[in-house]
Records
---
Amino acid sequence: MLWLYAPRLSRETLYAALNDYVEPRRQRARDELRQFSELLNGPTPASAREAREQLQRRDEVAQLVAGLDQFVTHLTSVLDQPGFQPHPTTGRPSVPACWPSCSATVPGGASWSSTAPS
């Protein structure tokens, strides 16, 4: 999980988070998904339970990849907007698209928008 300290949030912080943490994690997840695809196309698992577990894990990784893809899309669209600057006192960006609803990143499954301070 990646946490950013809002009062210190800047364009550079968001680019560093994207390049140093999010993109490498997205690549690892894509690699893992590719390995699951190869595994599922290979020999049949020894048991039905093992096959179900492999399919479930593949689906979880696919959801992670989709969520990371969506987060990168939102983050880059915000960073690409001319004049983007976080709010000077709260650190929160003035463009709410930077904070997509992503239940995987908030404990308890709540969306970011329902847990973000106003």
---
Amino acid sequence: MLGGLVWISFWVILVWLLVALVRRPGGGDAPRAPSSEALGILEERYARGEISREEFLERRSVLTGTPPSGPASASGPAPPGQ
């Protein structure tokens, strides 16, 4: 009976260690925040005037996964019928 408890404890600890290694910062193949570096580059390009405001807003919306806030939202809602 004690031997079975030891084996169960062994497997529980092993699984816990594997999960901890995978979930730790810097673990795995993908970086934690790849879009933050891309957003920084995008902001720099916009600040240098390499891209227009519309292009900046469109690309930022793609990176963040949010709808673009284009010229229509800056000046208010579009009039009815348009």
